[in-house]
Amino acid sequence: xxxxxxxxxxxxxxxxxxxxxxxxxxxxxxxxxxxxxxxxxxxxxxxxxxxxxxxxxxxxxxxxxxxxxxxxxxxxxxxxxxxxxxxxxxxxxxxxxxxxxxxxxxxxxxxxxxxxxxxxxxxxxxxxxxxxxxxxxxxxxxxxxxxxxxxxxxxxxxxxxxxxxxxxxxxxxxxxxxxxxxxxxxxx
Length: 188
Description:
Elements: E1 2-6, H1 21-32, E2 39-41, E3 44-51, E4 54-61, H2 68-79, H3 83-86, E5 87-93, E6 101-104, H4 113-122, E7 127-132, H5 142-146, H6 152-173, H7 178-185
Parallel strand pairs: 1-4, 1-5, 5-7
Antiparallel strand pairs: 2-3, 3-4, 6-7
């Protein structure tokens, strides 16, 4: 089993913002693979698929970012998912330049409230797929920055990143180990 989660905030006003990078990539991957039957379940939009005899779940928590762990925790407990090897979370990271990708097995929340919530509900050991969104000039601009729309340059980088993210999700479905995923996708 695999649970692949994209983090974001529900609602039209957040749809194409930096903080919704997880939702964006999940939506685009599902569209590319003709998966269109997401339903409300586990405080989220959720769909179950089968891939080579394995169950693969896709989830977009609708709890708002800061409570993402509630939705993910419900799905993890219901399906008896092992977070360490079967939970993969795609989200934005301000500490990396825009478009940079980094995979980690565990670690701190790094100030990301969605990750803090997940840690409080399923523990610290799950696979993090961080997508860099860059930083605002000052700390006071953080909220407006993460909830801001993409610049034209960022939109281009996003388009160029789609194939890499799609390949990464395919590799997860093909049971590539976390270490191999890190070796393949973590660039210097």
